[in-house]
Every structure is written in structure tokens, then in C-alpha cells.
Design brief:
Helix content: 55-70%
Shape: globular
Strand content: under 5%
Number of strands: 0
Structural class: mainly alpha
Length: 212
């Protein structure tokens, strides 16, 4: 039998884009069921900002353009799914704030706006698993190569300061470590594209200027 007529494997037939969308939407629904009642009862700004931030993720994933240039490595899928879903397990703030609530809200709001800027720049090129859905070199990508992760980190810091909880500290610490691994996995795929290599020459830092 000719190679071009070979029967595709199950892994080749499965629609990975659809799988990714279903996973993220399902876990977002669970987060909403857990936190929406608290947000309505307390009108907590940190909880409302967190829900809004994660809702935008789901919206962009559901509306994004399909791609076949997506990693099929199990490790990349583990990093992408874990890094996206892990923050959704955060609990409501506990204890006394470590900083004035206005400062916490400012950090969360600034982080949210920065990641939203990145998402609006990506638009339908947004995804959670390493893939090439088109290289964007405008907006915040002129400053750092992975502004969305930077925005999330800032939001998480503000959320932690608003009411420190050991669970959230563990969740967000693990999320940051996973983000670094995700960045390296994404760049392994993207560096095959000359457009991304050109972006990397102009925007030297991935996540934090002068550090990484």
C-alpha cells in the first residue's frame, strides 16, 4: 500500500483542537459553579476579576482558528492543560490582606489588562497547547515574547496579596513553574517559523525583562 494512502492512526484522526476546547470549557464551568455564588454574595473585586480573566480565556479558545500545526507530544499537552486548568482551582481569599485592597485590585487589574491586550492581539490565534497559529509581533509582543503569562503572574500576585491562602500560594507557584516550561515548549515549535525568529531578535526577553 502506498504511504500517502496509509490509514491514519487514532492520534492522527482525533481533532485535538476540539479536545482542547472541551477540556478548558468544562473546567471553567466548574470554577464558575464554585466561585460565582461567592462573587454574588460578597461582590468581591478579586473574585470578580479572576472570573472575568478566566472567562476571556474560554471565549478566545472557543472562537480561535483551527490549526494542524499543534504539538502531539504528551508532555506538551500535560503542560498546556495543567497550566491552564491549575489556576482554576484557586480558592476565595482567606485571612487579612497583605496589602491595601486598592493595591491588590490595581495589580490584578493591571495584570488583567496586560493579558487582555495580548489576547486581543492574538485574537483567533489563541491556544493553550504548543502550536503555531500565526506569529504576532505587534502590541505587547514588542515588549516581551510571552506577555500573556506575565499578565497572569501579576494578576496572581494581586490575588494572593488580597487574602493569602497556602493553597493559592502552591497553585500559583506551580502555575509559574509550568508557565516557564510551556514557554520553552512553545518556542520549540515557533522557532521553526522565520517570522518568530525575527520577533525573538527584536524582543529579547520571554517573560520578565532582564531576567528571562
Amino acid at each position: 500500500m502506498r504511504a500517502d494512502h496509509a490509514t491514519p492512526s487514532f492520534a492522527e484522526r482525533i481533532d485535538l483542537d476540539l479536545v482542547e476546547k472541551g477540556l478548558v470549557a468544562s473546567f471553567m464551568a466548574l470554577l464558575a459553579l464554585r466561585l460565582v455564588p461567592q462573587a454574588i454574595a460578597t461582590l468581591s473585586a478579586p473574585i470578580l476579576l479572576l472570573l472575568l480573566s478566566e472567562s476571556v480565556v474560554v471565549l478566545f479558545i472557543l472562537l480561535r482558528r483551527p490549526t494542524r500545526d499543534i504539538s502531539r507530544r504528551p508532555a506538551d499537552w500535560t503542560l498546556g492543560v495543567a497550566g491552564t486548568l491549575l489556576p482554576l482551582t484557586a480558592i476565595a481569599p482567606e485571612g487579612a490582606p497583605l496589602a491595601p485592597l486598592a493595591v491588590c485590585a490595581g495589580l490584578m487589574g493591571g495584570g488583567f489588562l496586560f493579558q487582555l491586550w495580548a489576547k486581543l492581539t492574538l485574537r483567533r490565534s489563541f491556544g493553550v497547547v504548543a502550536a503555531n497559529r500565526g506569529v504576532k509581533a505587534s502590541g505587547p509582543y514588542r515588549l516581551i515574547r510571552h506577555p500573556m503569562y506575565a499578565g497572569y503572574a501579576l494578576t496572581h500576585v494581586g490575588f494572593l496579596l488580597s487574602g493569602p491562602a497556602w493553597w493559592n500560594l502552591a497553585v500559583y507557584g506551580a502555575t509559574l513553574a509550568i508557565a516557564v516550561r510551556r514557554i520553552l515548549a512553545e518556542e520549540r515549535v515557533l522557532m521553526a517559523d522565520p517570522a518568530y525568529r525575527a520577533l525573538a531578535e527584536k524582543s529579547r526577553y520571554r517573560l520578565l525583562p532582564l531576567v528571562f
